[in-house]
Amino acid sequence: MNVGSDTTLNADTSVQQNINAANVTLTNNAVIELSNTDPTVRIRSNGVTVTNNVGASIIQSSGGNRAVRVDDNQTNFTLNNSGTISSTGGKAVNLRLGSTSIINNNSTGTITATKNTLMFSNSGGTINNSGTLSSTTTDGPAINSDGTSTGLTINNNIGGVITAVSSSSTVRLDDGNTLINNGSITNTGTGFSIDFNDNNSTVTLKEGSILVGTIDISDGTTGNTIQVEQGYGQTYFYDTTGTGAYTVQDLSGNAIVKGSAGSVGQGAQESMDELLGLRTYNLRSALKRYSAFPKHLIEDELYIEPFSYYSKRGSNSSILSYENYGYGLNFIYPIKSKKFDLILTVEKSELEIQRDHDVSNTNFLAGINATDLISVGPWKASGFLVAGMGWHNGKRRIFTNTTASGLLDVRSDYKNYEVMTGSHANYSFSSGINTWDTEVGLTFGYSLTPDYREHAFFRWGERHLVQGSIHVGEQLTSKVNSKLNVIVGAELEYRTVLTGREQSYSINKTLAKSRNGQFWQNSVAGKLGANYSFNNNIFAYLNIDSRFSNLIRGTYGASIGLKLNF
Length: 566
Description:
Lipocalin; single chain; mainly beta
C-alpha cells in the first residue's frame, strides 16, 4: 500500500507500507507483519516520520528482509518507537547509502533482529535509546555502522539496553562516530562489546553505565578515544584488544592508565596519613587521661581504658569522603621506677570510603610511656614511644567489562607497620579549686605498607610515610568536692606529611604514580570529662572528645577509665 499522506493504522495488516511522499507521518497502533521478501515499512522519500506506539508492532517474519528500510539518499527520516520492531532473519532497521535519520527508541520500545538490528550502510544520524536494542544470534551487531558512515551519534540513555550474542560485536563503529553510554551495552557471545572498526571515533562511558565484553581497537585504526566519566574516585577496569592507536581520558579527574582503560580510587592510600594521625592523637589523649589518675591508686596496678570513636571526612574535587568507626582497649601498667609505664593498645575499626570501598582494620601498638621524665618546678616533660602493626581487609566494587554483570567486587589483604613517638612539656598552675595545665608538644609517626595485590588488576607498591605534628593544649581541672573533679580542655594541632606523599601502583601491569590527598591538616579538639573517687578506693572517669579540622567534618570519641586490682 502506498502511503502518500499522513496515515494512522488502528487495525492489523499484512500489507507493506510504502511511503513515497515527502514529509509524511505514519502512525501505527496495530500490528504490521509481512512474511514475504519485501520490507514491512519502506521509506522512499525525504522528511518521513514513522511512529510505532506502545503495544504496536512492525514485524518482518520471512527470515530474509527488513522490518523498516530507508532507501538511498532519503534524508531527515525520524523513527519514534515505543512498541516492537523485529526481523526474524534480516535487519530490523536498514538505513542505506546517503540517508540520514533520527531513531528514538523509547523506554517501552524494543527493536530486535537476528543480525544487524540497526544497520547504517554508508549513512548516518542519531540514535537515542532508552529501551532495548538486541541482536539475537551470532551473525551481527545490534548497531552496525558500515562503510564510510556520514557521522553517527549513539546516545544510550539511563535504562537503555544494547545487547547481542554476537561473534563480532554489539556496537560496530565506523569513521567519526560518537557513542555515549549511560545505560548498558553487553555482548554475551564471543565477540566484543564495542568495535572501533575505523578512525576518529569517541566512546564515553558515563557514571553508572554498564559494559560487558572487550573493547576492540581494530588493527591499523587511529584517532579513536575512550572517555570514562564514572565519577571521581570510582575504580574501573575496561579490557581492550587490538593494535590500533587510541587515547584514554578520564572526565572525572581520576588518573587513567592505558594498556586497557583503568583507574583505581586512592581512598585507602590517601587516608593513611589521617588515620595514622588519628591513632597518634588518640594515644596521646589516652596518656593524658592516664596522667590525671591519682598516682597512689594505680601504683603497680593495671590500668584499662575502653574507648570508641567515630570520624567523618567530607569530599572535594581531589579527596574522597569516608566514615570511620573504631573501638578498642588501652592497657597501661606502671613499673616500679614510677617514671616508666608499659603500653598496649588494641583497636578494631571499619573504614567506609566513598564509591563502595570498605576496609576492615585491626591494629595493635606496644611500647613505653615516660611520665614526668623531667621535672623542674611547675614544668614537667614527658614522652612516649610505641610500635605495632595492622591487618587490613578491603573490598570495593568496580566497573569492568570482564564480568557478566559489568561489576566486580575486588578484595585486598595486606599489613602495615607503624612507629609513633612524641614528647611534650607541661606547665601546671593551681588556684583554689582550679588547676590549669598548659602543654606544648611534638609528635612523629611512621608507617610502612609493603606491596600487595588487589585482585589481578591492581598492585600497590611499597610505601613509606613519615608525618610530624606540633600541638598546643590547655586544660582546666576543677575540684567540685572531695570526690568529683570536672575537666575541660582544648587543643590546636598542625600536622604535615614529611615524606611519602607519592604512591606507586600498577593497573594490568602498567605502572603509574599518584599524589592524591591533602598532606597537611589544621585541627582543633575539645574534651569534657569527669573523674570520681568511690569510698571503696575505686577510681573511675568518663571522657568525651571531639575534633574538627580543615579535612575532617568531625571526630567524636568516648572513653571510660577504671582502676582494677589484681
